[in-house]
Design brief:
The structure holds two protein chains of two kinds. By secondary structure, chain A is an alpha/beta fold. Chain A is about 30% helix and about 25% strand. In chain A, the strands form two sheets. In chain A, strands 6-7-8-3-9-10-12-11 form an eight-stranded mixed sheet, with helices on both faces. A four-stranded antiparallel sheet of chain A has the order 2-1-4-5. In chain A, α6 links the parallel β7 and β8. The model of chain A has no long low-confidence stretch (mean pLDDT about 90). Chain B has twelve helices and no strands. The chains are: A alpha/beta, B mainly alpha.
């Protein structure tokens, strides 16, 4: 079997900007502008970048929650973007999503038991008794007990809710889980619990994760490989060790220099990025990062850097790397 | 499987959000008063033949135009019919309007609003144009226009009331759906492969019920007023059917000599409308989670 579970080729997601008296598109927000990404079976790929760089949009486009404008998303060799609604349903069992905000991702009018049971019912997984048994099993998998079944989400803390969300995603036995900042809304102590739970589940159930986050420490902990996104493009991707030890793109270097260190005496060079990210409606020509790059030269504003292969799976899109 | 050492246990217990809600509702005097009137109306309508001392069309010419007395609690009209009995039977008409006409308009508004809010785009554009047009007319005027086309009669009044009052529901439901469909739990349902119908009825609708219930309790009195107005104009219930509006109308010629004919049904309309409004307001407050203490 192919070792790549997911291959993304030249994915583009544009949102129309409506304006004028009669709503018509006057421009496009190029949220995701031609990215290539592959995820290997069983690995965790971290996708990092600042707010608005398109990382969540990428995750949603893979699941067709947002319709991409262009590109291919191959899941086990099948192009997801070419499927219709009926063809998509079996794939829903293989790919799942864990959300950022556990307070918004559970239906407030449904008990935990009903929410889990519904998923099994929709996919016709077992009869009533089997489903009941399975919901309890799912709760235990994420460290909860059957006492939760008859309760509503508002009775839980954020961490407990996130466990329920994970249980719901696991109900269909997915192979790939897209985690959209799954811990950024939680307390630090709870974050660790959820991350550990996710790692255990990955080991036990042989899951593949696409882990979207802006917290580099969390990404460093959980990922096997890391891709860095800036303004709708992947600027650098490499194995975790390689990327954190030997970042080649100036943006990655700036991000890594911003990770807080526990030792106050440690001497390190911080690279402070100036200004905000440019508008994705009118991204700068040439290298998209040149407006904020400390190493920018003339060439950067004129020609767009090719993505270079540096060996060992390390890719980078910079003229000077 | 995850390590079972750290299972977070919890006691099995049913949720108490409904009893919270009931407590908050009963704390409000308006709600209790409003609910009592509504219950009284329902009891009157169901038990009308037992409560009314006379038939609603039982004439007794020698006893015509009598003032309220022990024998005739609300007096009699020019044909000697007992006003109390007519008012009691009239509650049936009002209740029919309240349930059937408001129910039909609720269904129309719910379906159109849900389609517009969930699917958006061209569907939304078309439904909104229709809704705004319906909304632009004064309710009673539009109802008169419908009656003019359909002809007078109680059934046609119900159709007319339903056709003029759905727009409020459509707008409310559309707004609810617009905001809820972007919620993550709806996205989750889509990722989990659920059908649009399941998402609409199991995920979005239950979460938009509170404002719909409130609007319904506030739409009922409006519908009763429109029905009374139409009956007053002779377009609704036809004689001898005792609608409150038509009783007021028939008392108009005797307003100097026998004001009780018009006064009591008028009082009933006022009380029932007040009851529904008070109850609706209290319901809105009790359902608003921000006011939780």
């Amino acid at each position: 079997m192919d070792s790549n579970i997911l291959e993304i080729k030249n994915l583009k997601v544009y949102f129309p900007v409506k304006g004028g008296l009669l709503p018509k598109a006057v421009g496009f927000v190029k949220a995701v502008d031609g990215i290539d990404l592959t995820i290997k079976r069983g690995e965790t790929l971290g996708l990092v970048g600042e707010s608005g760089c398109g990382k969540s949009t990428t995750g949603r486009a893979i699941l067709r929650l947002i319709e991409p404008n262009e590109g291919n998303v191959l899941f086990e060799g099948i192009d997801i973007l070419k499927l219709n609604k009926i063809g998509l349903k079996p794939l829903r069992k293989k790919m799942q999503l864990i959300f950022q905000d556990p307070y918004a991702s559970l239906n407030p009018r449904m008990t935990v038991g009903d929410a889990l049971n519904e998923v099994l019912y929709v996919h016709k997984l077992g009869n009533q008794n089997e489903r009941k048994k399975r919901t309890i099993e799912l709760l235990e998998m994420v460290g909860l007990t059957k006492g939760y079944l008859s309760r509503y989400p508002h009775e839980f803390s954020g961490g407990q809710r996130q466990r329920v969300v994970i249980a719901r995603a696991l109900a269909v036995n997915p192979k790939l889980i897209i985690c959209d900042e799954p811990v950024s809304a939680l307390d630090v102590s709870i974050q660790a619990q959820i991350i550990n739970l996710m790692e255990e589940l990955q080991k036990d159930l042989k899951l593949t994760y696409l882990f979207i986050a802006h917290d580099l420490s969390v990404v460093k902990h959980i990922s096997d490989r890391v891709a860095v996104m800036y303004l709708g493009r992947i600027v650098e991707a490499a194995g975790k060790e390689e990327l954190f030890d030997n970042p080649r793109h100036p943006y990655t270097q700036a991000l890594l220099s911003a990770i807080p260190v526990s030792n106050p005496d440690s001497k390190r060079q911080r690279i402070i990025l100036e200004g905000d990210m440019p508008s994705p409606v009118n991204p700068p020509g040439g290298c998209r990062f040149h407006t904020r790059c400390h190493r920018a030269k003339d060439i950067c504003s004129k020609s767009e850097p090719e993505t270079k292969m540096l060996g060992g799976g390390h890719t980078v899109a910079c003229h000077f790397a | 499987m995850a390590d079972n050492n750290y299972l977070i246990d919890i006691q099995d217990k049913p949720s108490s959000s409904f009893s919270d809600f009931r407590k908050r509702l009963l704390r409000s005097k308006g709600a209790v008063f409003g609910a009592s009137i509504i219950i009284l109306l329902i009891v009157c309508a169901i038990l009308a033949p037992l409560i009314a001392p006379y038939g609603y069309d039982e004439m007794n010419l020698p006893e015509g135009l009598q003032a309220p007395s022990q024998k005739h609690l609300f007096g009699t009209d020019e044909l000697g019919r007992d006003i109390f009995s007519r008012v009691v039977f009239g509650s049936r008409i009002s209740l029919q309007i309240a349930t059937i006409a408001v129910g039909v308009s609720l269904i129309i508004g719910l379906v159109l609003g849900a389609l517009a809010g969930y699917y958006g785009g061209i569907v939304d554009f078309g439904i909104c144009a229709l809704t705004d047009t319906a909304w632009a007319f004064p309710m009673t005027l539009l109802a008169i226009a419908f009656i003019a086309a359909l002809g007078p009669g109680l059934v046609n009044v119900m159709i007319a009331v339903a056709l003029v009052s759905w727009a409020g529901y459509a707008r409310l439901v559309r707004g609810q759906f617009l905001s809820l469909r972007e919620q993550e739990f709806v996205e989750a349902a889509r990722v989990l492969g659920m059908s649009d119908m399941r998402i609409i009825f199991r995920h979005i609708l239950p979460n938009s019920l509170a404002p719909i219930i409130v609007l319904t309790t506030l739409e009922v009195p409006k519908a009763i007023i429109v029905e009374s107005s139409l009956s007053f104009l002779g377009l609704g219930a036809q004689p001898p059917t005792p609608s409150w509006g038509s009783i007021i109308s028939s008392g108009r010629s005797f307003i100097d000599t026998a004001p009780w004919i018009s006064f009591f049904p008028g009082l009933m309309i006022m009380l029932v409308v007040l009851g529904f409004n008070l109850f609706g307001d209290a319901l809105r407050d009790a359902l608003d989670p921000r006011l939780k203490d």
